[in-house]
Design a protein that fits this description.
Blueprint (H helix, E strand, L loop, with lengths): L1 H27 L7 H49 L29 H5 L12
Length: 130
């Protein structure tokens, strides 16, 4: 894998060297590097990129605001429940105990052994804290 990466970097360096050997002397002599058609293509690509950035930038800002609002409101709900001492009222699925931080705040950890996980239950189970 390292040999592949080193080989790719070597190819990029060689390509840059070739371009520099051709473009730098041509530019010093006053010749343009690109043809008039190439200049048009570059300018149109810049314009399209700026237009896309403007449209996408507005969408990104709106999405960021929505996410910030929803995260802020869920944190407010958690702190108000913690302050009142009320237990978490979210229903637990079969075989899971609603304890600890929410799944978004902590990585998922397996609960119980394989035998317990394979045993069907009809409701939430209660486990003693050890």
């Amino acid at each position: 894998m390292v040999a592949l990466i080193v080989g790719m970097l070597l190819c990029v360096v060689l390509a840059l060297a070739v371009v520099a050997l051709v473009a730098i002397p041509a530019r010093r002599e006053g010749r343009q590097v690109l043809t008039p058609l190439g200049e048009e293509v570059v300018s149109s690509a810049k314009e399209l990129t700026q237009d896309a950035l403007e449209r996408t930038g507005e969408a990104i800002i709106a999405t960021k605001d929505k996410v910030a609002d929803s995260v802020g409101s869920s944190r407010d709900d958690e702190t108000s429940a913690d302050e009142t001492g009320a237990p978490d009222t979210a229903p637990a699925s079969a075989g899971q105990v609603p304890s600890g931080p929410p799944p978004s705040a902590a990585p998922a950890q397996p609960t119980g052994s394989a035998t317990q996980a394979a045993t069907p239950t009809t409701g939430p189970t209660v486990r003693k804290a050890s």
